[in-house]
Design goal:
The complex is a heterodimer of chains A (about 200) and B (about 180). In chain A, about 40% of the residues lie in helices and about 15% in strands. By secondary structure, chain A is α/β, with parallel strands linked by helices. In chain A, a hairpin with a 5-residue loop joins strand 5 and strand 6. In chain A, helix 1 crosses helix 2 and helix 1 runs parallel beside helix 7. The radius of gyration of chain A is 16 Å and the shape is globular. Chain B contains seven helices and six strands; from the N terminus they run αβαβαβαβαβαβα. Chain B has a six-stranded parallel β-sheet, with helices on both faces. Classes of the chains: A alpha/beta (about 200), B alpha/beta (about 180). Chains A and B meet through helix 3, helix 5 and helix 8 of A and strand 2, helix 3, helix 4 and helix 6 of B.
C-alpha cells in the first residue's frame, strides 16, 4: 500500500469529516485522492498538522477531526503527542503516514526507519486509542472504528512513497475560507474586531 | 493571600472583553499571575499548555478554524520558536490570534542570554507584518490588550501586546 492508495481509502471511508493535511506529499496525495471543501491543506508549518487538528477538535467537540500527518512531520513536533495525551480530545484522529523517509525532500530516511516507534510514543504520552497497520484491510477496519469510538486516536500507517504529481490550490485564504464554510463555521459570519 | 498585580488582572479583563475564551500558552514567571487569575476568576476561559511556542500557534490556528478567538501567551524568548508557524501558517492564511508576550531582555534585564531576542522582538514583528503595541502602565493594560485583539480579529492577523519588565516585575525601590 502506498500513501496515495491509503489516502484514497481514508477519503472513501469518511463523509464530511474535516481532514487537516501536513504540507508536501501528504497534502498532495489528499488532493489527488479527492479534493473536498473539508480538506485543509497546509503549505508550510511542518510539524503542526497535529496541533491544528488538536485546536480544531477542542473548539468543535461536535466534529470528528482527522489529521493526515507524516512521520517526519510528527517527529518535528513530538511534544504534540504529550499535549494530545494531556487534553485527550475524544474526537481527534491522528493518522500518520509512516514511510520512513522525508518523501517531499528527496527520500532521506527518518528515525522511524531506524527503530523509532510512533505508536508506542503516542501511547506513552497518553493517547487512549492507537494502532499500527500495514495492510489495506487493517487500515479500513481501524478507520471505521476511529470514526465512532472515542479517541484521541493515533493510527500509524506503514506506507510506501507514492511520488505525487498534482498539487492542491495555492491560495491559502481560499483554502481556509472554503474549509471553515464546509464545517459550518463560515469566516464571513465570524465576528470581526468589535467585541 | 496573594494580591494579584493590576496589570495581570488587566490582561485577563482585556482578553475576556475581546471575546477570547481559549488561551494557549507556554508559561513564564510574570504570566503565572495571569494564569492564576484566569483559573480562579474566569471559569468560561479554557487554558491549554503547549510544550513549545510553535505548537501553541498551531493549536491556536486550529481553534480559530473552529470558530474560536484564540489567545497565545508566551515569553519573548519563545518568539524565536514561533516564527515558522507565524510566517508559514497564521500570516499567509490570515488566521488571527491575540498574542500576549511577556518581555525579557528589555529595561531591567539582568540575564545577558535574554537580551538579543528581547531587542529583536519589535523589529521581528515589523518584519513579518504583525501589528504590536506595548502596555506601559497597569491602568492601561486591559484596554491595550482589548484594542490589540480588536485589530487582530478585525484585520485577521496575529496581533501582539507586549508586557515590558517595568510593568510585570515588582520594583524593589517601592516594594
Amino acid at each position: 500500500m502506498n500513501r496515495l492508495d491509503a489516502t484514497r481509502l481514508l477519503v472513501a471511508a469518511l463523509a464530511g469529516e474535516p481532514i487537516i493535511a501536513s504540507l508536501g506529499h501528504p497534502a498532495y496525495d489528499l488532493f489527488a485522492a479527492g479534493d473536498r471543501p473539508a480538506n485543509f491543506y497546509t503549505w508550510g508549518s511542518m510539524g503542526l498538522a497535529s496541533s491544528i487538528g488538536l485546536g480544531l477538535a477542542l473548539a468543535r467537540p461536535d466534529l470528528r477531526v482527522f489529521v493526515a500527518d507524516g512521520d517526519g512531520s510528527l517527529l518535528m513536533n513530538l511534544g504534540s503527542l504529550a499535549t494530545i495525551g494531556w487534553t485527550r480530545p475524544p474526537n481527534l484522529v491522528l493518522v500518520v503516514w509512516d514511510n520512513g523517509e522525508y518523501g517531499t525532500t528527496g527520500g532521506q530516511q527518518t528515525a522511524t526507519a531506524h527503530g523509532a516507534d510512533l505508536e508506542a510514543g503516542a501511547k506513552a504520552m497518553g493517547a487512549t486509542a492507537t494502532a499500527t497497520v500495514e495492510t489495506e484491510a487493517a487500515f479500513v477496519a481501524v478507520i471505521a472504528r476511529a470514526r465512532v469510538e472515542p479517541g484521541p486516536w493515533v493510527i500509524v500507517v506503514k506506507v510506501a512513497e507514492s511520488m505525487p504529481t498534482v498539487k492542491p490550490p495555492l491560495d491559502c485564504v481560499f483554502i481556509k475560507q472554503r474549509f471553515m464554510a464546509a464545517i459550518g463555521q463560515p469566516e464571513a459570519a465570524t465576528r470581526g474586531g468589535g467585541a | 493571600m496573594i494580591v494579584e498585580p493590576r496589570w495581570a488582572s488587566g490582561v485577563c479583563a482585556g482578553l475576556h472583553a475581546a471575546g477570547s475564551r481559549h488561551v494557549v500558552y507556554v508559561p513564564d514567571n510574570p504570566l503565572s499571575h495571569v494564569l492564576r487569575i484566569l483559573r480562579e476568576s474566569f471559569p468560561d476561559i479554557t487554558t491549554t499548555l503547549a510544550t513549545r511556542e510553535e505548537e501553541a500557534f498551531g493549536i491556536a490556528a486550529g481553534l480559530y478554524l473552529g470558530g474560536a478567538r484564540p489567545t497565545v501567551m508566551l515569553q519573548s524568548s519563545g518568539l524565536g520558536n514561533s516564527l515558522n508557524a507565524l510566517t508559514s501558517l497564521l500570516v499567509p492564511y490570515k488566521i488571527p490570534a491575540l498574542v500576549v508576550i511577556s518581555m525579557r531582555g528589555d529595561t531591567g534585564e539582568w540575564n545577558d542570554a535574554q537580551v538579543p531576542m528581547g531587542r529583536a522582538v519589535r523589529p521581528i514583528c515589523d518584519a513579518i507584518g504583525l501589528p504590536h503595541a506595548t502596555a506601559d502602565t497597569p491602568e492601561e493594560t486591559a484596554e491595550t490588550v482589548r484594542l490589540v485583539a480588536q485589530t487582530a480579529f478585525g484585520t485577521r492577523l496575529p496581533g501582539v501586546c507586549l508586557l515590558p519588565r517595568r510593568l510585570t516585575v515588582p520594583s524593589k525601590a517601592t516594594a
